[in-house]
Amino acid sequence: MNYSYNGQTVLHDADEPLSLPNAYDYCRQIAKHHAKTFYLATKFLPKRQQNPIFAMYALLRTVDDLVDLAEDKLSNGQLTREELNDSIEDWKTRLRAC
């Protein structure tokens, strides 16, 4: 499995949906790479609670990276508001399909 991070972001277009265990592993890798202290703190949680916490962190980190990237592209003219809105709707559709 490829854990590419596009520089310092977690943005990644999957070629195909991941199985649940692979998705949790991907989320764990995001936390491990981007939030080392947070990742270590989760080790104090019961094992059954760790994967949902990693998934929540990965979701919030991804949304944060999307917003940061969009702000940069809007400010330098690489993206219009309409394109941004279309991109948001596409992302929401893909998220709901999970």
From TrEMBL:
- MF terms per GO, please? transferase activity, transferring alkyl or aryl (other than methyl) groups
- One Pfam family name is SQS_PSY
Q: Which InterPro entries match?
A: Isoprenoid_synthase_dom_sf, Squ/phyt_synthse
Q: Which domain of life is it from?
A: Bacteria
Query: What is the protein's name according to its record?
Result: Phytoene/squalene synthase family protein
Organism of derivation: Chlorobaculum parvum
